[in-house]
Structure formats: C-alpha cells, structure tokens
Description:
Elements: E1 3-7, H1 17-25, E2 29-35, H2 37-40, H3 44-62, E3 69-72, H4 75-86, E4 90-94, H5 99-114, E5 118-122, H6 144-151, H7 178-181, H8 190-194, H9 201-216, H10 220-223, H11 236-240, H12 246-258, H13 264-283, H14 308-314, H15 321-333, H16 338-351, H17 356-366, H18 372-383, H19 400-405, H20 410-415, H21 425-433, H22 453-465
Parallel strand pairs: 1-2, 1-4, 2-3, 4-5
Family: Belongs to the DNA photolyase family.
Organism: Thalassococcus lentus
Domain Photolyase/cryptochrome alpha/beta: 1-127
Amino acid sequence: SPILLWYRRDLRLSDHPALQAALATGRPIIPIFVRDALVDALGAAPKWRLGLGLGHLSQSLGSKGSALVLRSGDALEAIKTLISQTGAGAVYWMRAYDPPSVERDKAVKAALKSAGVEAQSFAGHLMFEPWDVQTKTGGYYKVYTPFWKMVRSNPVRDPLPTPGQVPGPADWPSSEQLDDWKLGQAMQRGAQVVRPYVQLGEQAAQARLAEFIENKVARYNDGRDQPWTDGTSNLSENLALGEITPAQCWHAGRRAMEEGKAGAETFLKELVWREFAYHLMWHTPRILTGNWREDWDAFPWNADETNAEVQAWKQGRTGIRFVDAGMREMYVTGRMHNRSRMIVASYLTKHLLSHWKIGLKWFEDCLIDWDPAANAMGWQWSAGSGPDATPYFRVFNPVTQLDKFDKDRAYVSRWIAEGRAKPSAEALSYFSAIPKSWGLAPDAAYPDPIVAADVGRKRALAAYENRGF
Ligand code: FAD
C-alpha cells in the first residue's frame, strides 16, 4: 500500500530522511500538503512565501514523476480521508518543534496508530534534537556559549542524496489547486516588490550556499556586521521552509573551515544559534508568548499597537536613519540585516518603551524568513527579557552604531530617499510598496526623530531603574 509523505516546512527532495525512508520501502509515495489552521494563521509574508515554495516543490516532484496533493482542513481529517481514498498504510513526515505543531502531530500520530496505520516522524529540520542536548546535570541550556561548546564537536549526519525518481501510485487522489488557496492574498506587495528578492527552492538555496562558501565566508567575520554589503549567506529564507537543511550548511561550513577559510567557524556558530533558539523553544515554549524572565511582566511596557510612535516605527519614519533603513529594507525585501534587526528591536523596546511582542508580530507579518524560534529569541534577547539576553540597561545608540557599521552611510542612503537629489531605486521602491494611507512621499523632508537617541536612552534607563523587580 502507498505511503503518504506529509510535507510541512521541509520543501525539498534532497537530504530528506522521511522521503528516503519511504523510498527504501519500495512502495508508492503520495506527497501531500494540508492547509490547516496553522497555515491560515501565518503572517502575510511567510504565508505568501510558503505559497511560492509549494508551487516550486510541486514542480520538482513533477520532474521526478511524482506530484504534490493539496488538501485543506483539519490535518488529521484530511489525512484520514486520503487514507480511505488511496488505501495508504503509512504516513511519514519531518518533525516540527513549535508547540502548536507538536500538539497537532502528537494527536495525528496517536490517532493513526490506534487506527492501525503506521505513523513515523523523522529528524532533519535541526542538527541536534532539542532533548538530546543536555547539561551535565541533565537539564537544558539557558546560555548559548556552553550550548555551543557542548554541540560543536557532536557528529552531524551526512546529508542524503536527491532521489532520481519518486514512484507514485497507479491512481492519484484529487488535489486542490494552489492558486485557489490565495496564500498571497494579504501580501499585496508580494509579486511586484518582494518577489525579485526571493531565491526560491532547493536548487537556488544550494547555489546560495555554494556562493557563500566560495566568495563570502572568508570575509564573513566582518561582512556579517556590515549591512551595506551582501556579506552573509541569506540562507535564513530557505532554512525557514526547509528548502535546505542545517546539516547541508554545516558540512559545507566544516569543509571551508578545514580549508582554512576565516569566518567558517563563525558561520557554524550562527547555525548553532538557530539550534539554540529551537532548544529554548522546545524546553520553554513560553518564549513565544510571554516574557521568558517572568519578572519582566511588571515592566511598564507600552503594549498599544496603535500608539503613534509604534506606527512610525513600523512605517520606517522614526527620523532615526538606521532604524528607518532597516524597517524599509524589511518591507521591500522581506528580510533585514541582522545588525539592523538588533537596532530596530532595541529602539522599539528601549527608546520607545514598547513591548517586544509588538515587534515580534510585525516581523512575523513582514519577514519571508520568519522562523518562530529565531524570531522569539531575537526579540527577547533584544528586549532583555530573554535567557542569555543583552541587559536592558545596555541601550544601542542607533546614531553612533551608524559610525561603526555604516561609516559611509551606504546602507541608509540605499533605503532612505528623502533629502536626496537622486534616490536609489530601492529607496524609491519603498514608496511604491507602502499603502497610500501611510501618507509618505519620497520628496518630503526626512522627519525629525520622534524620540531622539539620547532622550530615549535616558527614558529607558529611568524606566529600568524604577522597574520594581
Ligand atoms: P547568516 O549570517 O548567513 O547566518 C547563517 C544562518 O544562521 C542563518 O540563516 C540563520 O539560520 C542562523 N542564524 C544567524 N543568526 C542567528 C540568530 N541571531 N538567531 C538564530 N539563528 C541565526 N532569523 C530567522 O531566521 N527568522 C526570524 O524570524 C528572525 N527574527 C529575528 C528577530 C530579531 C529581533 C533578531 C535580532 C534576529 C532575528 N533573526 C531571525 C536572526 C538573524 O537576524 C537572521 O537569522 C539572519 O539575519 C539571517 O540572515 P542570513 O541567513 O544571511 O544569516
């Protein structure tokens, strides 16, 4: 009987343990994707990007003599229907680690097993299962550096090959049409503005990795902190949807390290930051929803999203160039340089005293590399409420950070049009991307700071002094 291969955030054919296990049985394979409530709940940009990824995966499977069967509704119900329509005797999938997916998958597994259907989940979205990495006393890690030291010499499995053919059933079950799902509906700027920045699918991801190792990793130690240059791998977009695996990236990084390329170890460390984020999410799922350090619940955050300062932050018109450049970069490209992510997050949570959850949600709506674990860790790190976080009293100065990381102002002039005789195409594209209701124009004067760097710093430190915990 056939095997249902349930795709989720693992949109690839290479290095796919569940697919390889299914192939090894010699049975027909029916790849499926279910648009359930968790898909419907995605933010605008990640949902749109998922739609692109699914279209691409469907083509890749087509080129292997297979197809992707699309169904919507409750995952278990959809799978049960498919089982009765195809006579499938097994369901295989790649494990997910965010709490709502874990809950869903547990229920699906239990129900299938009690119905006598084989149900198997496989590891691969991470290099190290979160429960396998333990402190000496058997606990989980709350601090990155010991986590890194613990895992850095652990073996990472060798990536698996891309299959030649994926054998299907004699009769295919019906499929819904991807276009009918309108996954890009809430992302009006998607096709026109963001699409040129997308690198879609596993071949593109592999090319990105190869290019990074070939041309960028040697300069990565500096390049990763220079938002004006393309000095990083940009692989977060592909890792988020499983178009490439961390194991594939790890082995490429290891080889580069053995070849003596400076920056290669730093790249491995960044991949382990991603693992650490999943480790934290697994062991303390509250990192997604509330202050990881619970005493921070008493901090007088502004939690009002309609607040005028928050609106200015979202719309990239705070009058602080580094912040506005980052926010505009994200709106146009669906991604933002890591240095800018730290600066905009610090400005929101410290200078504007606004709750990190507001920022987390806006990122979730705008990022094509949105990742639940990395986003939550990044926000709580920036706000000071997370484990191993930057302390609240360490307030980034968004003006002097420019002198350090954008000395020639190449980054801010790429993204800010106002006040320039000849604005860059990127800076102008922001104005065609934003809703008219934001009322912004490239030929207007650049705004004065809504909260100046020194004023905001004093305000943040005063709030911290008086926090009462
Ligand atoms: P590279 O520098 O090439 O690094 C390689 C890979 O390592 C990345 O693709 C990523 O998977 C991982 N990595 C690097 N830095 C981090 C980090 N700090 N935390 C976790 N993993 C890391 N990353 C996301 O993938 N999705 C998010 O939604 C996200 N939200 C963030 C929010 C905030 C407030 C902050 C401060 C950081 C966030 N990050 C997020 C982490 C980081 O900014 C991005 O992973 C990085 O900018 C991606 O670019 P790159 O692929 O070129 O990274």
